[in-house]
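The material for today's practical consists of a large collection of protein records. Getting from the letters to the tokens is the skill we practise here. To make this concrete, we reproduce a full record directly below:
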Amino acid sequence: MTTTPTPTWDVIVIGSGIGGLVTASQLAAKGAKVLVLERYLIPGGSGGSFKREGYTFDVGASMIFGFGEKGHTNLLTRALADVGQHCDTAPDPAQLEYHLPGGLNVAVDRDYECFIADLTALFPHEASGIRAFYDTCWQVFNCLDAMPLLSLEDPAYLTKVFFRAPLACLGLARWLPVNVGDVARSHIKDPALLKFIDMECFCWSVMPANLTPMINAGMVFSDRHAGGINYPKGGVGVIAEKLVAGLESHGGAIRYGARVTEVLIENGAAVGVKLASGEALRAQRVVSNATRWDTFAGEGGSEGSVARPLVDEAHTPKSETTWRRRYKPSPSFLSLHLGIDAAVVPEGFHCHHLLLENWAEMEAEQGVVFVSMPTLLDPSLAPAGRHILHSFTPSSMEHWQGLSPSAYRAKKEADAARLITRLEAILPGLKGAIRHQEVGTPRSHRRFLGRMGGSYGPIPALRLPGLLPMPFNRTGLQHLYCVGDSCFPGQGLNAVAFSGFACAHRIGADLGLNPWALPA
């Protein structure tokens, strides 16, 4: 008679992105024995940082939500506090400055009334529509902010939160199937202003308004004024480092250079993982912080993949096929990490910018350009007299595959030079001010982040009813959960933190670890 080995861990989390780390640290705080397995050498994934020649560069975006001090949408603040950690932050006076076709320039002021006044000055004939649209976003935000954001898969949580905030729950349910475009068009007629709202959505969802869920927009369009954009001092990677410290202080562990190649399955349930080294580790529950494509087998899951999916085709639930029909991978990015002379940066220059020269190019290869200059908020990230300039533009893997090493290097240099030329529209003289340069491509993102095609997450493949089709944390495979941007509510650090809170709560309910009372 054979006996089943006793699980070494309560929960194993595959990947140390912010979603995975919030899940792991929340579970450790509840008393679970948790292990995080990270394929790379540092935590954070696209929410990490790396150092070069005195510069601290953020891997991904540095426009960070979730560090407010009030309400329930300040999920990064709450996640850190729950494990005894805190990030010092620098407030950004503006979310970003748009540089759009036709000379349409808008800086989104941290103060809501200032932003509304600035936008109304550009579109005075739409004054009432502007106010009505953005006030509607506040209605959504207020519903979210009235309740602790935990797992919508837990009936006990839903019952408790309904009795605490019944009107907020009903209000939230109303907005779940709605997209931004429908709301915007009900209040606004000017095509140029509707294009601006498309870009307001695209800058964080990589989708125009008609494909962007209203729940997400309510959070972003309002939290930038409520909690504000706050940059973590020391770089975005500090968030992951502090979550790891909190995890370890509560008895959890993380292993680097530990690449998971397979989820172990017995009797139709996940029982652990297998590493590239051949080592097998067992757990009561397994969480994948990999993308859905890298987690499950299926059509579209091999092109641009780093390795075979963690779950083979025989054990992949049918629900994943449905999900792949509804969602496709967003493009990856061409990224420039520059160290530049501070003298080239004019007084009053904002930290974040978005540049587009032609509306027809908004969703095109290398169409929109994003710019971050975090040293304007934290000068310690660069040597004295220098600034960091991180610029990135959407780029698909298909444009980078099949190139010889020399052709790949040549394309990197040519595309980077073209991007720098475009950036000189807002920073004249930039080319001559560059003192350090790193170029990342979709192949870089695939290699270092382990994401299929280097994608930054799923986007709708067709028009969908808001967030309703998004999968939650439980999967069709027993004892296997997913967390991160492939799950409700989607992309962005605060969104994947929400996913982490939800995943930890659902597993906590399944393992009997959750406290009875809701968080304050």
